[in-house]
Write a structure and sequence with these properties.
It is a single chain. This protein is mainly α. It contains 15 helices and no strands. α13 runs antiparallel to α15. It is globular.
Length: 292
């Protein structure tokens, strides 16, 4: 039961909530214990609400998951956790998220609720609408960034929001490409695809979307590092030296997507690929060293 619960809550996905800490890093607030504590509570709130959303998705998709060759092993689809029990877990996780958010600010409460509403809409409708499905995923990451800025009383940088948007669109379209290219899906054909929206995509179209969003991510971050506003805010022109790590990370992810069957699970790709893990760690270390 414990293993099934952990599998249902997907704690390995919590790494995505690290977007909450971007505001702390780029606002030079990592030395303020109160701000770091508030950011940590906001992070935990998003972990709880993310788990609630995963449970909700599995409840909604239970019949489709039972027909899928791998997703049928999920706790609800396999019967390891009953649907009524899953609803109770969903409610508990949602309440925990709101309690943690209330310990930070009303902004974080509002953003947590918005995230929940967005994902309910995604589960019931938005995930079936081509392109809008990926923008909905990106919107969830933007809410995390806002929780780590507005939610903590930090003015959100337009550059930070732009870079976050383009990066999450890139990851979202890469995920759709990985799903479409999956051998199992290809063999089963369009009629039995677990995601109906895949019928509206093609590999060539998704290759264009990932290429455009990847280029825009690099361009946006590069312009951010050399903008007069950024140099005036941080008192340094050294952020440009972090750009190579961003470029390498994007290229490495594209390599994993096209050559190693990656892209289906961004969090798992990050923690299992030593190149990506080292790139993120070095980028963060160099960024903090430059801004300090």
């Amino acid at each position: 039961m414990l293993y099934s619960l952990i599998k249902l809550l997907r704690p390995h996905q919590y790494i995505k909530n690290g977007f909450v800490f971007l505001g702390v890093v780029f606002a030079h607030e990592w030395g303020e214990p109160g701000t770091v504590l508030a950011a940590t509570l906001a992070f935990l709130a998003f972990c709880a609400i993310a788990s609630a959303v995963y449970v909700l998705n599995d409840i909604v998709d239970v019949e489709a998951d039972r027909q899928h060759p791998t997703k049928r092993d999920r706790p609800i689809a396999s019967g390891a956790i009953s649907v009524p029990t899953a609803w109770a877990i969903f409610a508990t996780a949602a309440v925990i998220a709101l309690v943690l958010a209330a310990m930070v600010s009303t902004w974080v409460i509002a953003l947590i609720l918005t995230y929940l509403v967005l994902n309910v809409a995604y589960s019931w409708s938005l995930k079936h609408i081509v392109i809008l499905d990926v923008f909905s995923i990106a919107a969830g990451f933007m809410l995390r960034i806002l929780a780590g800025t507005l939610g903590l009383g930090i003015e959100p940088s337009q550059w930070l929001l732009l870079c976050g948007l383009m990066l999450t669109l890139f990851l979202g379209f890469a995920k759709r490409r990985a799903e479409l290219a999956d051998d199992t899906i290809e063999r089963r054909g369009n009629a039995d695809r677990p995601r109906r929206v895949l019928d509206d995509y093609s590999l060539s179209l998704l290759d264009q979307f990932t290429s455009i969003s990847a280029a825009c991510t690099v361009l946006a971050y590069g312009l951010y590092t050399v903008s007069a506003e950024t140099m005036a805010l941080h008192g340094t022109d050294g952020l440009i030296y972090t750009l190579p790590f961003v470029i390498y990370g994007i290229f490495r992810y594209l390599f994993l997507l096209h050559a190693r069957g990656g892209g289906n699970d961004t969090s798992r790709d990050l923690v299992t690929d030593p190149h990506l893990l080292a790139t993120v760690a070095v980028w963060l270390g160099v960024t903090i060293a430059v801004l300090a």
